[in-house]
Amino acid sequence: MALYKDGNELTHTESEDFDKVHSPGDSAPFSGIYLCINCRDEYAYNAGDPLPPQNHRQHSANKGAIRWRLLVKTQRGPN
């Protein structure tokens, strides 16, 4: 589970970006933290980087396939 200290630095959203599930090796559509919905591992990725492959961590049969979902999305600051 991701941790945070200052909730004032986070903004709640109902964006559908957080509902999409991605396969191993897919390009991360956004920079942020991704959660494997089956083993609960979390990893930070930059937009365009490939999400971890099936062998990032071996799942037992009861955990199912590795599937990634966006957990925390970063935003660009002002230029």
From TrEMBL:
Residues 1-25 are annotated as: Disordered. This is Protein L. It comes from Nitratireductor mangrovi. Residues 1-23 have a biased composition (Basic and acidic residues).
